[in-house]
Design a protein that fits this description.
The complex is a heterodimer of chains A (about 450) and B (about 450). Chain A is α/β, with parallel strands linked by helices and about 450 residues long. Chain A is built from 18 helices and 14 strands. Helices cover about 45% and strands about 15% of the residues of chain A. Chain A has a 5-stranded parallel β-sheet, with helices on both faces. In chain A, strands 3-2-4-5 form a 4-stranded parallel β-sheet, with helices on both faces. In chain A, strands 7-6-8-9 form a 4-stranded parallel β-sheet, with helices on both faces. In chain A, helix 14 (about 320-335) links the parallel strand 10 (about 315-320) and strand 11. Chain A starts with 16 loop residues before the first strand and ends in a 10-residue tail after the last helix. In chain B, the strands form 3 sheets. A 6-stranded mixed β-sheet of chain B has the order 1-12-11-10-13-14, with helices on both faces. In chain B, strands 3-2-4-5 form a 4-stranded parallel β-sheet, with helices on both faces. A 4-stranded parallel β-sheet of chain B has the order 7-6-8-9, sandwiched between helices. In chain B, strand 13 (about 390-395), helix 16 (about 400-405) and strand 14 form a beta-alpha-beta unit. In chain B, helix 7 runs parallel beside helix 10 and helix 12 packs parallel to helix 17 (about 425-440). Chain B starts with 13 loop residues before the first strand and ends in a 9-residue tail after the last helix. Classes of the chains: A alpha/beta (about 450), B alpha/beta (about 450). Chains A and B meet through strand 1, helix 1, helix 2, strand 3 and helix 3 of A and helix 1, helix 2, strand 3, helix 3 and helix 4 of B. Strand 1 (about 15-20) of chain A pairs antiparallel with strand 3 (about 90) of chain B, so a sheet runs across the interface.
Chain lengths: ~450, ~450
């Protein structure tokens, strides 16, 4: 009912977005900043942005999400927000006492031309930043890119403003995490430990946005990459960036500042991307892949072979963020399914280039990102060419219901389910979980729809 | 936590009731201090939530994508028919639009959307950026309105122009442009508009049915399950009933001035306030005693059903302590009374947007030792919950995980409620939810209140 207005006929639209498959930069910056230990994100703009970002992250993680705001008024919008930000820095250090304030801009402060670098420098010169404390910043205008861009910009800010090089190399590898869940970050750390590789993972939202219940409201939960670890990234042997759009800018910033060489891999979602990540890590650190990791891979492949009859030829529609869609689409192909429609609201040529590579043997696939790539378009495509499965964030549920398509929740935001922040999607065990979820919805559907005479114990 | 105190400059926004002598006017209706972790939102948010339930209108957010994305289907305002309000439309402004202006984009978008969806009217929300770059949305709206023959209404809701309350005003001003444009033919004398009831989880249907059972005609419900045509003819009603005074009093006042329609402020939460809301209307139509008769019958029937149920909950809930932090202060009044009916004790009462009178009333209603607070933040909320040893927090989205982290129960009395809490059946739902949350066995396993045993 809800989407009954959606028609088959796809028309070019002039600057109109219907049901966006993205949101704006500052929320990405806020999420990235939460992955620094003892960090209070700060939104330099009016109160609404900050409230919306906190609400959305709160709904997705079911955790208290803290962030301060410059509380712009009409005056600040006319005369500039410098006074607001200076006062904010004062207030935050005296009352909330974080180790780090990570300031991000909004469309409002960007349009009036506030220079975050200059204002934070002034705060430092004026003695508003206590000894040992840090204020970092990133420019995140909402009218450029998407939440993914904001994440990348804050990540670059973190890398550039913390990293130091002492000239003495450390036996450690930086893992610059593209947008992933706390569970995924925890899994990356587990894999590295299993392989015996010392890593600095940043940002790291595990133990921040999946914190245990303690009877206390911890303003700064125990997780997050520490200042010390972030500073040491400049001395690491090399970096592996995960995700060309959300992770790589952080690695580039490190390379620029401290000459830490990097390579970029996909976020290790699915079999092939995990293989590449494991090999990269093994090569970068000069270690062998341990048997346990090989066994994990073997178990995943075993399930893929056991269940291949249920997956073969199934058409899949996917939407979400580029760095997740790229390896996920590849995995869908590895599972012998057909990625038929792919939509990402986030603009960027890297997505198009990678998709063309991945889909070179899948000429039937439709994909689009950036301008005009929204959920309305996805729905129209599905109406023209129906699919067997939809994978994407919670907003996909409207299409799934309208078209009666099995639906697997994946990406950001997931507002109506739990699990994403606790069970990883990355690595071989994450891939196994994805296969389980996909099989689950297919077989549930078969059980539901089969005529009685065909309904059997094993479908 | 221990070293975190109350924000400097906020001391006068917090009041603890201790005897008579400490009475002072609470500071309120100010913008939040820069650098605070405020629970408040902006002007746009205020407009969007008020107008959102007008279900057969197009709601187009003019600005960068975020404002539209975050308000996409964000409030469970149910519709009995069209569901146009639940889609998210945005002009998705880019850098070039910010430099060269977005009027053309808005114009083209509107033409396309009106063509496609054939709405009864369109609301165009102006966001922060629009205020800065100076797009003349009034002119665009006027032009489209003339070309397409439907009301296209600008909503001046630039985020930075004040607080959420200013957004309510902007929404009322837009609604006022619709009021009076329809025919009032056939509207009887015993007729009302229901204002400021947003039909979360179907609450407006409950309220509407009560009044209809009393023999009263409901002309429009602004804006719960709202319809453009009903709003256009709403000036034909004899009386406006205003709940959520913060959002709709302005519209009621304007309708009083222009169309001489008197208004009544009511609340639909709790037995006491719900009954009063019905009786007040019946008294207004005292020339028809049948209405009061019907009201009495309805109340006694419903209370008769409800009372024994509440007694069961009361046995276990009596003496439990509650912290309330809600948007409007008027709701806090109702909650205090509703909780009193099961002998629960309010230890913190706060609001995002209360005014001086509201806080004075709160002071009078609350017991000694109760903390009264304006525009609070998570630090203060958890501090007071711990200090006052609350067993339950009543609030909205951002407050929920705070309560759970502290190991206490929670009840959403904001946009995310999934069951109706208004009316008599709503009161049952409310207390049942409170009961289930406060008495949940999960608290046996969870550390509570920073380690305090309960």
């Amino acid at each position: 009912m809800l989407l009954r207005h959606t028609t088959k006929e796809v028309k070019e639209r002039e600057g109109l977005t219907i049901n966006p498959a993205k949101t704006c930069q500052p929320i990405g910056a806020m999420y990235a900043a939460l992955g620094v230990h003892g960090c209070l994100p700060h939104s330099h703009g009016s109160q609404g942005c900050c409230a919306y970002h906190r609400s959305t992250l709160t709904r997705h993680y079911k955790e208290p999400v803290m962030s301060a705001t410059s509380s712009f008024t009409e005056g600040a919008s006319v005369f500039g927000g410098q006074a607001n930000l200076l006062q904010a820095i004062d207030t935050i250090f005296s009352v909330y006492d974080p180790d780090v304030i990570a300031v991000h801009s909004t469309c409002l402060s960007e349009t009036i031309g506030d220079d975050l670098q200059q204002i934070t420098k002034k705060a430092l010169d004026d003695g508003k930043i206590p000894e040992g404390k840090r204020v970092i910043y990133a420019s995140t205008p909402s009218f450029v890119g998407s939440h993914v861009t904001g994440y990348a910009n804050m990540l670059a800010g973190i890398a550039e403003q913390f990293a130091k090089s002492t000239g003495e190399k450390k036996d450690q590898i930086n893992i610059v995490a593209g947008w992933m869940e706390p569970s995924d970050m925890r899994e990356i750390k587990r894999i590295a430990k299993e392989m015996g590789v010392r890593i600095v993972l940043f940002p790291d939202t595990s133990d921040v946005l999946d914190a245990p219940q303690t009877g206390k409201h911890e303003f700064y939960p125990k997780g997050g990459t520490t200042i010390e670890a972030l500073e040491s990234t400049g001395d690491s042997k090399s970096s592996i960036a995960l995700g060309c759009m959300s992770g790589e800018p952080g690695a580039i910033a490190l390379d620029k500042k401290c000459k830490v060489p990097f390579q970029t891999e996909d976020i290790p979602i699915g079999l092939s991307a995990t293989d590449r990540f494991i090999m990269s890590l093994s090569k970068a650190a000069g270690v062998e892949v341990p048997d346990e990791i090989t066994a994990e891979r073997g178990r995943l492949v075993d399930v893929m072979t056991d269940m291949e009859q249920y997956l073969y030829g199934k058409k899949v529609a996917l939407f979400g963020d580029p760095d997740q869609l790229i390896p996920l689409t590849e995995f869908v192909l590895d599972l012998n399914m057909k990625p038929t429609h792919i939509v990402s609201g986030t603009p960027g040529q890297r997505f198009e280039k990678r998709m063309k590579e991945i889909l070179k043997d899948a000429p039937y696939a439709n994909f689009k990102n950036g301008l005009g790539a929204d959920m309305f378009l996805m729905h129209q495509w599905i109406k023209n060419e129906p699919v067997d499965l939809l994978i994407g964030n919670t907003y996909g549920k409207y299409i799934a219901r309208d078209e009666d398509i099995p639906f697997v929740r994946f990406g950001f935001p997931i507002l109506d389910r739990i699990g994403h922040s606790y069970f990883p999607n990355v690595g071989y065990s994450g891939a196994l979980r994805l296969v389980e979820k996909i099989l689950g919805v297919f077989l549930d559907r078969q059980d539901r729809d089969a005529p009685e005479e065909k309904f059997e114990l094993v479908m | 936590m221990e070293k975190i105190g109350i924000l400097e400059g906020r001391q006068r926004q917090i009041y603890e009731k201790k005897g008579e002598e400490t009475a002072f006017d609470i500071t309120c209706e100010t913008t939040s201090l820069s650098g605070s972790v405020s629970q408040r939102a902006c002007v746009f948010c205020g407009s969007r939530v008020v107008l959102y339930p007008v279900a057969d209108a197009l709601h187009v957010v003019h600005g960068p994508i975020g404002c539209a994305a975050y308000t996409w289907d964000i409030r469970g305002a149910v519709s009995s028919g069209p569901e146009l309000h639940r889609l998210s439309f945005s002009t998705d402004l880019k850098e070039m639009d910010v430099i060269y202006g977005g009027e053309k984009k808005l114009y083209l978008s509107l033409l396309e959307l009106i063509e496609r969806y054939q709405p009864k009217a369109a609301f165009i929300y102006s966001t922060c950026i629009i205020g800065l770059i100076g797009d003349d949305i009034d002119a665009v709206c006027k032009k489209v309105s003339q070309e397409k023959g439907i009301p296209v209404l600008p909503v001046h809701s630039e985020g930075f122009k004040g607080t959420k309350k200013d957004g309510y005003k902007a929404a009322c001003d837009s609604l006022m442009k619709l009021v009076g444009t329809g025919s009032t033919e056939g509207i009887g004398k015993y007729s009302i508009n229901i204002l400021g009831e947003f039909n979360l989880a179907g609450e407006a249907w409950i309220i509407r049915s009560y009044y209809e059972q009393m023999g009263i005609e409901v002309v429009s419900t602004m804006t719960g399950d709202g319809r453009v045509d009903d709003i256009r003819r709403s000036h034909g009603a004899s009386l406006n009933i205003v709940q959520c005074s913060g959002s709709m009093v302005r519209l009621a006042k304007q309708m009083e001035e222009k169309y001489s329609i008197p208004c009544l402020r009511v609340s639909y939460f709790g037995i006491e306030d719900m009954s009063k809301a019905l009786y007040d209307v019946a008294r207004h139509f005292s020339d028809n005693p049948a209405i009061m008769e019907a009201a009495k019958k309805l109340v006694s029937r419903e209370v008769g059903k409800l009372y024994p149920q509440l007694q069961q909950f009361r046995r276990e809930l009596a003496g439990k302590k509650v912290a309330i932090y809600v948007g409007g202060a008027f709701k806090a009044f109702s909650l205090i009374k509703a909780l009193a009916s099961v002998d629960m004790k309010v230890v913190l009462a706060g609001s995002q947007t209360g005014n001086k009178d509201d806080y004075n009333s709160l002071k009078e209603m609350c017991d000694e030792g109760t903390v009264i607070v304006d525009d609070s933040n998570p630090v203060e909320l958890s501090k007071f919950v711990l200090e006052k040893e609350a067993d339950l927090l009543i609030g909205g989205v951002k407050e929920r995980p705070i309560a759970y982290k502290l190991g206490i129960g929670f009840c959403d009395h904001n946009h995310e409620r999934k069951i109706p809490l208004a009316g008599f059946e709503g009161m049952y739902n409310f207390i049942r939810e409170v009961y289930n949350s406060v008495m949940s066995p999960v608290w046996q396993f969870a550390p509570r209140k920073g380690g305090l045993s309960s």
